[in-house]
Design brief:
elongated; single chain; mainly alpha
Length: 231
């Protein structure tokens, strides 16, 4: 049995492109599902089915976990078999670019869908009243997006650059993830929940803003990845 697994690992390690592709699919699923769960809650609220929306979001997060499992298992294997930091960073950057393209598409759809509501909300007097809260929310969305992506990539990239400390470096990702979770749950999700409970018309604009700001966060993550990879 041990010989069988050793032979299997030898075959897989000789095809790193396949390993990296599976890891990329896992990373893509993990990140995009986290975003789709917000849209599921939003659509549930718009249909007056808040509980169903939250249930759909939880189902989507199951796919998020499956993607995370694929990602971490296969990217760890790629690092253990000696993938170069440059190749690994190219895989990370390519995946985040794909995420950004999908986000741009979703943003365009939701922007066109609620263009009338968005214009009316921007012109309303309530815009000034809530501006400070919304500015803070925008900053938190940007920070959370960066922390999420960098926590999933930078520690593993450093593990490839410094393999002697790969276990320690890879586990620093939990620090990023903890900060992301705190910001996401206690600020972003909390703000959205209040808007949903109050049936606040600003919900349309806030959701579209979150989509747009996440695109900026992904662009920032790509820049930092390039700095770390080629420093």
């Amino acid at each position: 049995m041990a010989d069988f697994f050793k032979s299997l690992l030898d075959i897989v390690s000789s095809n790193l492109t396949i390993v990296v592709f599976i890891a990329a699919c896992g990373l893509f699923l993990a990140v995009i599902m986290e975003q789709l769960q917000i849209l599921a809650k939003y659509d549930g609220a718009m249909k007056a089915k808040v509980a169903s929306g939250y249930n759909s979001a939880m189902k989507i997060m199951v796919i998020n976990r499956l993607g995370a499992v694929l990602y971490f298992v296969f990217v760890a294997f790629a690092i253990d078999t000696g993938i170069s930091p440059q190749r690994l960073s190219s895989f990370f950057i390519g995946t985040i670019c794909a995420l950004a393209v999908v986000n741009i598409g979703v943003f365009s759809v939701y922007f066109r869908r609620f263009k009338t509501e968005l214009t009316a909300e921007v012109r309303s007097a309530g815009r000034v009243e809530h501006k400070r809260q919304e500015d803070l929310l925008a900053l938190c969305v940007f920070a959370a997006t960066m922390l999420n992506l960098l926590g999933l990539t930078i520690p593993l990239l450093l593990s490839a650059k410094f393999p002697d400390y790969r276990m320690t470096l890879s586990n620093t990702g939990f620090l990023f993830n903890t900060l992301f979770t705190i910001i996401n749950v206690f600020i972003i999700e909390n703000y959205l929940a209040k808007l949903i409970d109050k049936k606040d018309d600003r919900l349309h604009r806030i959701v579209v803003s979150i989509l747009g700001i996440r695109i900026l966060g992904q662009a920032g993550a790509i820049g930092l990845l390039m700095l770390v990879a080629f420093a």
